Amino acid sequence: MLGSNARRVAVIGGVRIPFCRAHTAYARCSNQDMMTAVLQALVARYKLEGERLGDVSLGAVIKHSRDFNLARESTLSSGLAPETPAFDIQRACGTSLSAAIIIGTKIATGLIDAGIAGGTDSISDVPLVYPDAYRTLLLESARGRSLGAKFSPWLKLRPKHFKPIFPAVVEPRTGLSMGESMEVTAKEWHLTRQEQDQLALASHQNAARAYAEGFYDDLVVEFMGVKRDNNIRTDTSLEQLAKLKPVFDRGPGGTLTAGNSTPLTDGASAVLLTSEDWARAHGLPISAYLTYAREAAVDFVNKEGLLMAPAYAVSAMLAEAKLALQDFDYYEIHEAFAAQTLVTLKAWESEKFCRERLGRDRAMGSIDRSKLNIKGGSVAVGHPFAATGTRILATLAKLLRERGRGRGLISVCTAGGMGVTAILEAA
User: Is 64 part of the annotated catalytic residue set?
Assistant: First the structure.
């Protein structure tokens, strides 16, 4: 890799299936079912049947042990050449954006000429496990050398062994769910319930308008009879949102509700990334270029809010790119919760935070809110954990392609106190 000249990373475009609330349309679909459907659609869209790509990086956050090779298995059913390699990745909600960064880095350094990044998640098809005591019993029986040794462990079997353990989105270090952690941060930053509901309303209105205008016609492909995201509320209002009760802090100080938080969602998405030469050779128009990226982490146990890492990652990325926060035409900030997006914006506006936490000599400033998540954000569209990054990447690439100029900023928070960010520039 030494001595290689960096090449521009072209974003050709992306495809996803509609995102659906958990236990609805995709209740009987697996991660592999959804991921394969997206890859097949992407292959068909860009006429890649039989093509051998350099690599495919895909991931899921909630996955069965049977999905140990999810990326490769999905790729084998995609229509690409069987010789196309693939690997799994997992960085919580930043999974597919991190996958795109890895594929992009391989293209930039000349390791490959083209690749696919994506992600999928199903809350409906969650893996259920049983208590460790039951697992120990099973293994002890399996190790038995004689019939008696195999049978005797079963004498310890009790009804409690059959109580399943469901996956929980809880931080092992703090014991708090993401929503509970965000409530703490929202209080620290003095966020009001109304601010959060207003952002949630805008998310739904922007998403509904984008569908009505046909923006998603070539980004979203029908799957299981579903043609559009089923969480978007075209008729919601501030009055309706205000009626919802807080769900993470049920006391008088709670502000996070089901209306201003992302719903548990099933879905999948993917994008095609290439070098410029490969795109031209295959007659594929370039939508945008992936120019900068940055991943960061914070000490959320002792010092910082769980979902604050993107504030740090964006600051470092902009310093490297020699850009100001205001030098963007579009901002795609993942709405894990309306509160997370708002706190990130407030952090960049804070002189104290920018000086003491980011090491800057002044506040980064505010953004033009009319440029934020203009085609809807995760609160409205939904959030299948590993699929959100490339959903955003494909959306932003199309916005830049239609505009024909400019740049866009992506910011995604993740569990574990991490953040993944990127910059796209129009082709």
Answer: no
The pLDDT confidence band at residue 128, using thresholds 50, 70 and 90, is confident
93 has catalytic annotation: yes
- The domain in which residue 137 lies consists of 132-162
Q: Does residue 313 belong to any structural domain of this protein?
A: yes
Contacts of 179 (CB under 8 A, 6+ apart): 247, 248, 256, 261, 337
- Among 93, 204, 334, 354, the active-site one is 93
Six-digit token pair at 3?
């001595």
Specify the length of the chain in residues: 427
* The one catalytic residue among 20, 29, 204, 383: 383
Domain with residue 296: its CATH number is 3.40.47.10
Decide if 383 is catalytic.
yes
Which is the catalytic residue, given 20, 29, 354, 413?
413
pLDDT for the residue numbered 300: 97
Q: Is the pLDDT of residue 166 over 90?
A: no
Other Cβ atoms within 10 Å of 189 Cβ, number: 17
On whether residue 224 sits in a domain, the answer given is no
Lowest mean pLDDT among 94-108, 152-166, 326-340, 345-359: 152-166
